[in-house]
Amino acid sequence: MENEKETEEKRKPVGIFDSGVGGISVVRQIVRILPSEDLYVFGDSANAPYGIRTLEEVRELTLSHVEAMIRENHVKAVVIACNTATSAAITALRRRYPTIPMIGIEPALKPAALFKQGGKVLVLATEMTIREEKYHELAKRFSDRAELIPLPAPRIVTLVEDGKHDSKEMDAYLAGLFQPYREAGIDAVVLGCTHFPFARAAISRYWGETVPVFDGAEGTARELKRRLTENDLRNPSEDRGKVVLENSGGIEKIRLSEQLLTL
Ligand code: DGL
To answer: Which atom of ligand 1 is nearest to the CA of 157?
Structure first.
């Protein structure tokens, strides 16, 4: 029979971290795929956007917030629901917390590259994600399958942070951003930042429904499920888990996160 200590460990929450409200796009998938887990979600909107900061700044911010999450909320596993923070800090986090499952997110290049042999794939992400080693290693694996065109889109982050994910401003920004690629014959789009799925409607309005749009949220939720199962850490409860949302930007960002969670 399982002892009390083991059950207690399994009932601890999963910690989810993002630079702001974008991580909610991953939370949505985790709630769907792992409904019994309690989630503690922290967004660092007061310091967002991370994508235009230095690598050292993003690493420091991520390490200190995850450290607080582990110390104060006793999380049993951590999801870095931010492509930028993953590229800057996942190696350091895994080294620092070798016994806590640490799940990162990466741009969904695979399904986009496999969608069409020799296709052109627009990869939207932050400047930092595109610059870092992690992206280049991943891109190398698919470079013979498709032409990957990385494109930084920092304003999508700030528009989503301002609650303008489906707005005239978003349409106008995307029109300017995509204009140089309009005639390029884009076959697929990758959303390599967790804020971007909230702009999916506006992105599809531009490219049309025939251009598929991929993001890494579901893959990350499935990876969390796999890691919890492998470590025998799944919550045995049959009730729906509790989702606690916190944000360094205060009540306004918490309200926005609640709203984004219902989309
Ligand atoms: N949500 C983050 C990501 O997935 C970055 C947004 C930001 O620049 O803060 O990359």
So the answer is: 6
